[in-house]
């Protein structure tokens, strides 16, 4: 069942499989969930909405069908004459570059809407996870995949440097601009779930089929959703803020954040529940 306000999307199924958990499913399986024009803006609208919805405490992101999380960019659609990447556009290079820069920034902001989401997002990847699949999952907080998932930073094979997030986020989520990061980005070679885990891109590799992947993801999402939303959203905000700050700057950011958030009743509820050995409940945030 779709929650209120989430039923008008053509390319995404948005459901509530459990209290406080929203499941966003990319729904273009006949094209291996490859993205084109209108899909980008639907995705941004969804994540901007779940970010501030007080009913939502954790989000799952997956792809419909058995073949792919997403195969990335729909190359056939992108090559059509009306696409900003291929259309003749302005009459001189400066004006054409301005059009392209604005278009790239627009698409970057769609992927960044996942990274900005106040709620934790768990990417559940299966099948082909190519190109944009790496961009989207890198913008998520946690990544699980099936054992037979195939990954690829595909962009050099279609003549461009990845430009909507992978080259900025992938090094951060795996621990730096490592030799491995450069190897997979420069070569566009396919790598396995096992290799993704060895290099810290995914935290869990699930045996079995897609049903097992969704079950594992939902179980963990429910676990997070049972925690204090003040604590969970604050932890996500502080961890994300650490990316661009020194330790000293982030400690100060943490102090300012918790100066407000420690006044929540969640702290007392969590502490008392431990003493009483009871599961606490928390108000919406």
Structure characteristics:
lipid metabolism; ClpP/crotonase-like domain-containing protein; alpha/beta; Lyase 2-enoyl-coa Hydratase, Chain  A, domain 2; 285 residues
Can you put this structure into words, describing what you see?
This protein is 46% helix and 15% strand. The chain has 285 residues and is of the alpha/beta class. It has two domains: 12-225, 2-enoyl-CoA Hydratase, Chain A, domain 1, CATH 3.90.226.10; 229-276, Lyase 2-enoyl-coa Hydratase, Chain  A, domain 2 (Orthogonal Bundle), CATH 1.10.12. It has a six-stranded mixed β-sheet with strand order 1-2-3-5-7-10, sandwiched between helices. Strands 4-6-8-9 form a four-stranded mixed β-sheet. Helix 9 (229-242) runs antiparallel to helix 10. The mean pLDDT is 92. This is ClpP/crotonase-like domain-containing protein. Pathway: Lipid metabolism; fatty acid beta-oxidation.
CATH evolutionary superfamily of the largest domain: 2-enoyl-CoA Hydratase, Chain A, domain 1
Give a short account of the largest sheet. 6 strands, mixed
| Helical residue percent band | 40-55%
Uncertain regions spanning at least 5 consecutive residues:
none
Strand % is 15-25%
Structural class: alpha/beta
Shape: globular
This entry's quaternary arrangement is: single chain
CATH architectural designation of the largest domain: Alpha-Beta Complex
Count of DSSP H/I helices: 11
Radius of gyration: 20 Å
Order of helices and strands: EEHEEHHEEHEEHHEHEHHHH
End-to-end Cα distance, whole Å, is: 22 Å
**Quick check: average pLDDT?**
92
- Sheet with most strands: strand arrangement: 1-2-3-5-7-10
> Could you say how many structural domains there are in total?
2
* CATH fold field value of the largest domain: 2-enoyl-CoA Hydratase, Chain A, domain 1
Supply the CATH class of the largest domain. Alpha Beta
């Amino acid at each position: 069942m779709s929650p209120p306000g989430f039923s008008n999307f053509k390319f995404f199924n948005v459901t509530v499989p459990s209290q406080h958990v929203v499941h966003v499913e990319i729904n273009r399986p006949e094209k291996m969930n490859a993205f084109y024009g209108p899909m980008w803006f639907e995705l941004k609208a969804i994540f901007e909405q779940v970010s501030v919805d007080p009913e939502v405490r954790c989000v799952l992101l997956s792809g419909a069908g058995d073949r792919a999380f997403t195969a990335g960019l729909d190359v056939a659609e992108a090559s059509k004459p009306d696409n900003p990447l291929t259309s003749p556009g302005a009459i001189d290079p400066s004006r054409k570059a301005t059009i392209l820069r604005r278009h790239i920034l627009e698409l970057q902001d769609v992927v960044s809407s996942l990274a900005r989401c106040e709620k934790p997002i768990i990417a559940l990847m299966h099948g082909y996870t190519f190109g944009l699949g790496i961009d989207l999952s890198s913008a998520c907080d946690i990544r699980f995949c099936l054992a037979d998932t195939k990954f690829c930073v595909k962009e050099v094979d279609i003549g461009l440097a990845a430009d909507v997030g992978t080259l900025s986020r992938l090094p951060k989520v795996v621990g730096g601009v490592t030799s491995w990061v450069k190897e997979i980005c420069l070569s566009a070679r396919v790598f396995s779930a096992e290799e993704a885990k060895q290099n810290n891109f995914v935290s869990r590799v699930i045996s079995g089929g897609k049903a097992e992947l969704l079950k594992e993801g939902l179980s963990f999402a429910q676990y997070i959703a049972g925690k204090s939303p003040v604590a969970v959203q604050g932890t996500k905000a502080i961890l994300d803020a650490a990316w661009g700050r020194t330790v000293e700057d982030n400690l100060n950011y943490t102090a300012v954040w918790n100066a407000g958030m420690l006044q929540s009743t969640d702290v007392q509820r969590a502490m008392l529940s431990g003493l009483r050995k009871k599961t606490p409940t928390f108000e919406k945030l």
